[in-house]
Amino acid sequence: MNTSSASSGPVAGGISESDPQTGWFPISVRLAGVRVLLVGGGEIAVNKGRLLLDHGARIDVLAESLNPVVQGWVESGRVRHVAGRADESALKEHLPGCRLVYAATDDRDVNRQVAALADALNIPVCAVDDPQPSSFITPAQVRRGAVRVAVSTGGAAPVLARRLREQIEALLPEGTGRLSAYMQSRRAQVSERYPQVQDRKRIWEDFLDGPGAEEARNGDDIRADARLNALLDAARKPGEVWLVGAGPGDPDLLTLKALRLMQNADSVLYDNLLSPALLDMVRRDAELVFVGKQRDRHALPQDEINNEMIRRAQAGERVLRLKGGDPFIFGRGGEEIEALVEAGVAFRLVPGISAANGCAAYSGIPLTHRDCAQACLFVTGHAKADGVLDLPWDDMADRRQTVVIYMGISTLPQLAAGLLGKGLPADWPVAIVERGTQPAQRVFTGTLSNIALQAAEAQVKSPALVIVGQVVMHRVVSP
Ligand code: SAH
Q: What's the EC number here (predicted)?
């Protein structure tokens, strides 16, 4: 997935272009009782054969000779041996009627010939360790009962896939298989009470969020049933709004809570400040609603955004209002929740890493410093409609602090002039961090007298943060 386009504005619906590596589409194939042709009887065939037997396939092994393990399978009646070379006539005879073919000999040319013949018959074929002639590949798997997590890099980096599998392995609780079996066994009961898909989804999500999930994982079905029944009996929950800070752009800076809500929302309202990499992490079937500025028109007025949230929540949706940075720092979070309260809509608020924190850390500029900055002031450089900057100039000119200016790029000349006018020296340090924490981050340092010119020359664009004060001199970059 291409997330390096973080600088080019939000993408629609998180659809990325396909490329040779992402063109591998994972599906699960039913193998129980199904015929699979395994070409080769050696070590490589053993690995694949074991996997196939685990999934209940009926295997025909086409090989001249058999490794003792495969021989054992044949003798126990679990596998049929078709003796002979994997030449064209043998393949033409045995390929038809197979659902899958594994070309698993240790001879790449033979495997490729098998692949070509199977392909000609439109039978999915995997030439082991050779993605190029294959029409399917076998992903690395994590298994917990009926639960399968498959990791594939599209053949690009099998070692990475295996490493990721190990990490997921450690992450997935042992009882996940039991939990899945429990949920399957209670499915009919839930569907009967709640015929609407949306309602059922919500019940199961609430179940998974509550203690019942852990109980089912531990095999305590009686307790889990009590929880599930309580959820089934509860009246249908009304919708709600989650106001969530998504941080300054690097998806790794999301909080766990933000990520969880992003995975659970029915709809997501977002604007320009949100990097596309973050949108990619929203649940696939959530409705993405763009409420920011578009080229040919202004941003939706705040009232309309509020009304949209309220309308959706009242219709029962779990609405995620996803905000860049932190919702309560120049994010209009306060106004939005006031409107929600007035309409009687329940909300949850999740803080995010604000641009000041993100930009400071990713540019190496501390916001406070024992030697020179005992305080830090966040101000907005956004001018009022008449172009006037209504700011606490006297406070901002205090030298023992850092001043962080949000939305200050278009008014930078006025800001610098204002501070100089209040007596700060011409060489007072200033930094600009553009697209902080994102792949295209740029950092500029200068002084009150030259920073506006620098920004203009470098064509600095929003979002960018201005940091004023001696902390800029303490900037450190990792060796
Ligand atoms: N609620 C947000 C701020 C919204 S105001 C927060 O807490 O960060 C929008 C301003 O935030 C931008 O004009 C810019 O000054 C700053 N900003 C947001 N994301 C930024 C980023 N990734 N890099 C630099 N500045 C950013």
A: 2.1.1.107
Query: How close is the Cα of 410 to the center of ligand 1, in Å?
Result: 14
**Ligand 1 center to residue 462 CA distance, Å?**
8
Q: CATH assignment of 357-474, given 3.90.650.10, 3.30.950.10, 3.40.190.10, 3.30.1300.10?
A: 3.30.950.10
**In this predicted model, what pLDDT tens digit does every residue of 235-275 receive, in sequence order?**
566 789 999 999 999 999 999 999 989 988 999 999 888 88
| 119 contacts 101 by C-beta, under 8 angstroms | no
Binning the chain into helix, strand and coil, the percentages to the nearest 5 are 40, 20, 45
Regarding the beta carbon of 351 and ligand 1, being less than 6 Å apart is answered no
**Model-level pTM?**
0.64
* Answer CATH for 32-138 from 3.40.50.2300, 3.40.50.720, 3.40.47.10, 3.40.190.10: 3.40.50.720
Contact 289, 308 (CB under 8 A): yes
Q: Report d(CA 66, CA 86) in Å as an integer.
A: 13
Ligand 1 near 441 CB (within 6 A): no
Q: Which two tokens stand for residue 393?
A: 């100039």
CATH number for 176-233 (one of 1.10.10, 1.10.287, 1.10.8, 3.40.1000): it is 1.10.8
Out of 48, 271, 323, 326, pick the active-site residue: 271
pLDDT band at 1 (very low <50, low <70, confident <90, very high): very low
The residues, any chain, with a CB within 8 Å of residue 456's CB and separated by 6 or more, are none
Ligand 1 in reach of 428 Cβ (< 6 A):
no
CA 325 to centroid of ligand 1, rounded, Å: 6
Residue 436 Cβ inside 6 Å of ligand 1? The answer reads yes
Which atom of ligand 1 is closest in space to residue 462's alpha carbon? 13
Active site residue 106: no
Two structure tokens written together for 113? 């010939």
